[in-house]
Each structure stands twice: as structure tokens, then as C-alpha cells.
Amino acid sequence: MFYGRYDHTLDSKKRLTLPARFREKHPGSQGGQVWFLTRGYDDCIFMFTPPQYEEFVDRMEEDEISMESMDFHREFFGSTSEVTTDSQGRVLLPDHLLELAGVSKSVVVLGVRSRIEIWDLGRHGDHSKSFEADDQYRQQFRKIYTRRTKRGSE
User: Fold this and answer.
1) In 48-71, which positions are buried (b, 16+ CB within 10 angstroms) versus exposed (e)?
2) CA 17, CA 89: separation in Å to the nearest integer?
3) CATH number where 74 lies
4) Residue 77: inside a domain, yes or no?
5) What Rg do the C-alpha atoms of the chain give, in angstroms?
6) DSSP-assigned beta bridge partners for residue 45
7) CA pseudo-torsion sign 78, 16, 23, 116
8) pTM reported for the whole predicted model
9) For residue range 75-109, what is the model confidence (pLDDT) as tens digits?
10) Which of 79, 1, 67 is nearest to 40 (CA)?
11) Is residue 138 in a domain?
């Protein structure tokens, strides 16, 4: 499971050094780890290990065939890139994903359970503010916590 926030800066070649904690959770060896990058939700880049990517793709197979699902599949798979870490734990972020997510030089790297999200620092700040953090966060937390404690008491 991935969790935590890390502020990083892309180097001049648009490479991101992955947090060591995230590299340690990858099922592959430390050098040459394969990751899948794709267009995320809310103007960020999603990053998956191969097993997590396959699991996400398997869930897409359950979609009914429709124009919306076909368009989504085209966009999702068309924007996906397979990248490999170098010996220093860096990955090259593709230009098309940097542009889609509005990523410049300063980024926020978030662990979000089964995936990693890469955000432009400014966009992440704007998104956090628009979340109306206190009220929406509390409501969602209360909903999840209540559901979990009800299950535990049965």
C-alpha cells in the first residue's frame, strides 16, 4: 500500500526521483523497476506497479460497451506509458502526461493506497482548497469509519 506526501522537483530531463518508501513497495527488484503511468483523475498522473495496473485494467473489462466506455478506453490506453527506473530510482515522465496534468518543475507525489499520484505543486494546492477540506473530508471519513465499525461489531 502506498501512502504519504512527498514534495519533489523534476530534474532538467523531466525525471522524477521516486521516494525510497515507494520503490521498496514495488514487487520488482530495486534497479530497473517497471511502472505504468497514465492520465489520472483531477489533472494528475496515475502511477501503478504492473500488478496494480493489470488489476485496474481487469476492472475495466466489466464495463458495458458504450461510446463513453470506448472513448475512455482510447484515452486511458492511449495516454499510458511504461517506464523503468534507472539506477538512482528516477523515472522519465513523458511530455504528453506532463502537459495533460499541467505539471511543471515542482511536484507533489502522493501515495493513494494502490497507486501513486503525481501532481503539479500549484494544482495540488488548488485542488486541496477546492475540496473544502474540513467538511467533505469529515463527511467521507465519518461514512467510512461508521461502515468499518458496524462490520466489526457484527
Assistant:
1) bbeebbeebeeeeeeeeeeeeeee
2) 6
3) 3.40.1550.20
4) yes
5) 17
6) 39, 118
7) negative
8) 0.82
9) 999 999 999 999 899 999 999 999 999 999 999 99
10) 79
11) no
